[in-house]
Design brief:
Blueprint (H helix, E strand, L loop, with lengths): L2 E8 L6 E8 L6 E10 L2 H7 L9 E2 L4 E8 L11 E4 L8 H4 L9 H7 L10 E3 L2 E3 L12 E5 L3 E3 L15 H13 L6 E5 L3 H10 L6 E6 L2 H10 L3 E4 L5 H8 L5 E6 L4 H9 L1 E9 L13 H4 L4 E4 L7 H13 L9 E5 L3 H9 L5 E5 L1
Parallel strand pairs: 11-12, 11-14, 12-13, 14-15, 15-16, 17-18
Antiparallel strand pairs: 1-2, 1-4, 2-7, 3-5, 3-9, 3-18, 5-6, 6-10, 7-8
Length: about 375
């Protein structure tokens, strides 16, 4: 027996999201049915919806879900019906990186999460009028009133924390926080520069404010976002439309450069400026993702001072430990995620998309 629900379907690359009646497959041994309460909207969803990645369309996207478990497959042990969960990426659990605590670098990450549209065994999870749709997006496809979720995408969370306030933890927030905590790991007196003050960048700013870093610089072209960055913990801001980034960082750091840089814009020109602004032995974390095949030119001799450029997926987080810790910080008011969130009824998903594209909403969250 299939499970009827309503989902936002993208019919083809560049088409809008349209609400449609669909059917979920019955949960397999390691799957659960989750009634969605909230789902964050991420630039990755928009990139796939535009046709920029080979995800099978028509399909159902959504990968920052939060909801309540309704049913579980016979082999699921981590959650039971009634549990509150945040949904994140899935992974195989058995490759070298999964076993080593780095599931974001799972050997099968791309087909399981981003481009496959089906379970690992090739079977579909969502259909409409008997025709299979692309699904299993990040193991969840949470742009729907109910989602069929891979067990490794499920993270049980404190039921006292409103799910609307923590839905973005599954992707954007853990990416920004993980860039700082899991890669840069600032020591006392460090300088951290965050390029781009969107949801990921502002999450990195908040994370840096919880470390021994003493100088936290937010860089953007939108004055309002820079003002918000100051309120969230940035000690300095740079408006890139008014000042040269390299010159500004040199002034702020007394000519030493930045110990750590988080690049969230996906602009290779900005990435190059960030690398050039690094201090000796400094590290730049590449978070922003331009189109596949994009290249960047770097001064090789400039790297010989011990500079590192590190790519990052989803904060290099082990979700079962990382996300509950973030939930506690949200609950205690130490990670004021609500400052980034704008809520929209699920039916207004296209308005949320427009507002995100226009820069009116930092982190749209759809509510059900």
């Amino acid at each position: 027996m299939t499970i009827p629900t309503r989902a936002a379907v993208v019919e083809s690359g560049g088409a809008p999201f349209t609400l449609s009646d669909v059917e979920l497959d019955e949960p397999g041994p390691h799957e659960a049915v989750v009634r969605m309460v909230a789902t964050g909207l991420c630039h990755t969803d928009l990139g796939v919806a535009s046709g920029g990645l080979p995800f099978p369309l028509p399909g159902v996207l959504g990968h920052e879900g939060a909801g309540v478990v309704e049913a579980v497959g016979p082999s699921v042990t981590g959650v039971v019906p009634g549990d509150h969960v945040v949904l994140s990426f899935t992974s195989c659990g058995d490759c070298r990186n999964c076993r080593g605590g780095h599931p974001a670098y799972c050997a099968t990450w791309l087909p399981l999460n981003l481009i496959g549209g089906r379970r690992a065994d090739g079977t579909g999870t969502i259909s409409r009028d008997g025709e299979e749709l692309g699904g299993h997006f990040f193991g969840q496809s949470s742009f729907a009133e109910r989602a069929l979720v891979d067990e490794r995408s499920l993270v049980k969370v404190d039921p006292d924390v409103p799910l609307v306030s923590i839905a973005p933890l599954g992707c954007g927030v853990q990416t920004g926080v993980g860039a700082v905590w899991n890669v840069l790991k600032p020591v006392t007196g460090s300088t951290v520069v965050v390029l781009g003050a969107g949801a990921v960048g502002l999450s990195a700013v908040m994370a840096a404010a919880l470390t021994p870093a003493t100088t936290i610089v937010a860089v953007d072209r939108v004055a309002e976002r820079l003002s918000l960055a100051k309120e969230l913990g940035a000690t300095h801001t740079v408006n890139a439309s008014e000042a040269d980034l390299g010159d500004a960082i040199a002034v702020i750091t007394g000519g030493q450069g930045a110990d750590g840089v988080v690049e969230t814009t996906g602009n290779v020109g900005v990435l190059r400026q960030g690398v050039d602004a690094l201090a000796l032995r400094g590290t730049l974390v590449v978070v922003g993702a331009p189109p596949f095949g994009t290249e960047v030119a770097l001064d090789v001799n400039g790297l010989l001072g011990g500079k590192r450029v590190v790519g990052l997926t989803l904060g290099d987080a082990e979700t079962q430990a990382f996300i509950p810790a973030l939930v506690e910080l949200v609950k205690d008011g130490r990670l004021p995620l609500h400052r980034l969130i704008s809520s929209y009824p699920f039916a207004d998903i296209d308005q949320a998309v427009r507002d995100m594209g226009a820069g009116k909403a930092i982190k749209p969250v759809l509510t059900f």
